[in-house]
Structures are given as C-alpha cells and as structure tokens.
DNA sequence: TACAAAATTTTCGTATAAGAAAAATTTTCG
DNA sequence: CGAAAATTTTTCTTATACGAAAATTTTGTA
C-alpha cells in the first residue's frame, strides 16, 4: 500500500506535489498517480522519492522507522530491582518496569568462583558493558586471555564472543552490567 | 545499482533464477533483465523480491543490514578514561577506543549545584540510564518533579525529554551514565 | 569430446510507467 | 462572493516493464 503511505509522508512534511517533485526529481503527474494508486513506480522513482522525502526506503514499504516512545522514565532505588538468579549470577534488573529499552542495565552479583562452573561460554547477539562496583572480577572470553577487573574498572565487548565472569576476591563481586538488545526488530 | 546487489544476494542464497522466481512470484525473464540492468522493477516486484530473498527492502537499495563487528573488546581501568569537561559535568568516557558502540558508558562527576546553571535542559535522541556511584543526585526533567537519587539508585529515561542532573550532597556526586546512540545511522 | 539437462538470456506482444501540458479543482485574498 | 493563484488530476504520447516461449549458454556426466 504505497499510495496512503506516500500521502501520509508528504502531508507530514507539508510539501505540495510540486515541491516534492522538485526535491525528488519525479514529475508532478507521476506523483499524483502514485498517490492515487494508479501507478506502480519503478526502482529509480522509489529511491528518488525516499530521498526527496528524507526517509529510508523501508518506510515506503510499510516498515516502521523507529518506535521511540517519548518522555518515559523509570526509577529504581538501591536494592529495589527485580531479582533473577542463576547458578553463576544474581541479577537485579533495575528499571525493569520500562519495556522496550535500547539497552538493559543489571546490577549483578557474580557468584561463580571458577570457570568450570560454566559449561559453554555465553554467546548471543549484541554488546555488553561491565563496570565493577565492588570486589574483583575475572572476565573469560574467546580470543582473549582472562582479564581481571577491580573496582571502578570497566570492559565493553561484543556478546557474540563467548564470555563468562567469575568473582576473584574473598567475597562475591558486584558489577553494573549493561546489555544492548539484539540487533533485529 | 540494483543489478549487482540482486546478483550478490541471489548468489548468497544459492538460488537459481527459476527458484527465486518461484519464491518471489517474479518471472525468470524479468529477473534476468533486472540482474543485467536492462529493466527497473516496479514497487510490487521490488517488494516481492525482498520477500523472496528474505531480506529487508532497504538491502536492495544498498543499505547495509547490520554492521556488527565480531569479537571486539575494550578495557578501561578505574580513572583511565578520556576526560571531557563542561561547566556542569566532568565526563570520563570509558572504553572510548571502541568506535561505533551501541551505547556509550560515561563515568560522570556532576559539578552543577543548581538548576540555574543549566540554561535549557538537554534534549536529544536516544535513551539514558544513570546509576549513582557516590553522593546524591537530583534529576530535573520535563513532565516530572525533581527526583533525588542516592548511592545505588538508578533511573532510565528518554533523552528527548529535557533533562539535567545536579549534585545534592556535600561533595560532587559520581554516576555511571549510559547513553544509547541516536536512532538513525 | 559429445550430449543432455539445467540455467540464463533474448525475442516479442501486451500492459503499464513516465512526463508535458491541458483541464479540473481547491485555496487565497480583495 | 468572485477572480487569481495554487494545487491536483486527467489526457495523451513515448518509453519501458512484464511474462511466455524460443534461443542460447553453461554445467554435469559418460
């Protein structure tokens, strides 16, 4: 359904057919016909239209651009997050009441004491960041030798690379863990 | 340049023209002509092609799908980040050596002591997360009354909403600040 | 090499996209 | 309201997209 999409986008930009014609290089008559569903534009015209409208071509094919909700905010007090526990980690998902975030912050306690506790290293889409709040953390990952991080140290890495964290010191380490969402919508 | 793009995508899927024709509903002869640049397909054919190939239409228009670099990692020791300072904040960009991250972590010292120090509130695309490391922070923003956060508290919000942080207690507060990138590439 | 099968390109008739200009419609403003 | 201007739609001609089938090229196998 290109016709209504184009109508909507042109209206949103407050352009006349004449103006859009100038910006895109597509003739006024052709634009009119497209908007009335009387004509199916070719590749060049579609590319020109997207360019003239300043949108991604995907938008003309009904793909939503970015579902950015506006003005959301969420507060979590210390220790007030939703706890989720595995053998290796104790996650406290802060600001969990906000769905669809672009990245996910987790206050995490690292229970694991040895790499043996991990079967296979974790691997998934996205990127991660770790900031050490307390204690000592050793990061094991593909391609790198184990890395020890102390309070205030941080590490950013690609999640597709196998990874695992273990506590190094006397007591369980605590880190602020941030994960990006997977790439595809 | 649709022709080489289509050739590449079809080769990647190991499909013959016949097979792609069956999957997409576009005739073999038309496919051949498109791949040889002898013909500019219409809207319907383009949509059908993307569907048959299992790719986003944007790919047919030369947009890269997802440039996910694999296996990157960066380490920053406490206090070892790149410092950037404004009147209100002192940013320490950790893991700054890694370009193109999906979100940006900043260890930030909040120097501002009053909302008057901010002219206009900050407003930009994206989302942000603040985790208080030390001290007390008051978050001012559109739509909400000022919010005071103590050590261990966190807040996640939409960056398009005007926002500003000031230190509340005796000494400058320190927070771990995470910003998502702007939506469009 | 020969030969058949598969894959691709070309041919050709029909349908339709493209744009210029005319016609119709809507908007603006006295 | 009514005329002029702006905007959109229609008309008409040319160029080109589309698919079926034929022609050609490539691939696989003996």
List the helices and strands and how they pair.
The structure is a homodimer of 185-residue chains.
Chain A: H1 2-13, H2 17-24, H3 28-35, H4 43-53, H5 57-60, E1 73-76, E2 82-85, E3 89-93, E4 103-110, E5 127-134, E6 137-141, E7 144-149, E8 154-158, E9 163-167, E10 173-180
Antiparallel strand pairs in A: 2-3, 3-4, 4-10, 5-8, 5-10, 6-7, 6-9
Helix pairs in contact in A: 2-3, 2-4
Chain B binds a DNA duplex (30 and 30 nucleotides) through residues 16-18, 26-33, 35-36, 38-42, 45.
Task: For this entry, give a set of tags.
homodimer, 185 residues, alpha+beta, 434 Repressor (Amino-terminal Domain), Jelly Rolls, six-stranded antiparallel sheet, three-stranded antiparallel sheet, 5 helices, 31% strand, DNA-binding, Cupin_2 (chains A, B), TransReg_Diox_bact_type (chains A, B)
Can you walk me through this structure?
Chain A has 185 residues and is an alpha+beta fold. In chain A, the strands form two sheets. In chain A, strands 2-3-4-10-5-8 form a six-stranded antiparallel sheet, with no helix packed on it. In chain A, strands 7-6-9 form a three-stranded antiparallel sheet, with no helix packed on it. The radius of gyration of chain A is 25 Å and the shape is elongated. Chain A starts with a helix and ends in a 5-residue tail after the last strand. Chain A has two domains: 2-60, 434 Repressor (Amino-terminal Domain); 82-184, Jelly Rolls, CATH 2.60.120.10. In chain A, helix 2 (17-24) packs across helix 3 and helix 2 crosses helix 4. Chain A has five helices and ten strands. Chain A has helices at residues 2-13, 17-24, 28-35, 43-53, 57-60; strands at residues 73-76, 82-85, 89-93, 103-110, 127-134, 137-141, 144-149, 154-158, 163-167, 173-180. Chains A and B meet through helix 4, strand 1, strand 4, strand 5 and strand 7 of A and helix 4, strand 1, strand 4, strand 5 and strand 7 of B. The structure holds a DNA duplex (30 and 30 nucleotides).
């Amino acid at each position: 359904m290109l016709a209504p999409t184009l109508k909507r986008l042109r209206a949103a930009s407050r352009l006349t057919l004449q103006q859009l014609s100038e910006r895109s290089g597509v003739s006024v008559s052709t634009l009119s016909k497209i908007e009335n569903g009387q004509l199916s534009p070719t590749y060049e015209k579609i590319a020109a239209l997207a360019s003239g409208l300043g949108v991604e071509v995907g938008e003309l094919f009904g793909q939503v651009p970015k579902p950015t909700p506006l003005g959301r905010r969420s507060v979590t007090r210390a220790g007030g997050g939703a706890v989720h526990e595995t053998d290796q980690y104790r996650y406290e998902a802060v600001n969990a009441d906000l769905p669809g975030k672009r990245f996910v912050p987790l206050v995490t306690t690292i229970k694991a004491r040895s790499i043996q506790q991990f079967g296979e290293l974790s691997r998934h889409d996205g990127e991660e960041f770790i900031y050490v709040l307390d204690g000592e953390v050793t990061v094991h990952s593909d391609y790198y030798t184990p890395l020890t991080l102390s309070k205030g140290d941080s590490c950013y890495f690609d999640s597709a690379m196998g990874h695992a964290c273990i506590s190094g010191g006397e007591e369980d380490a605590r880190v602020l863990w941030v994960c990006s969402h997977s790439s595809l919508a």
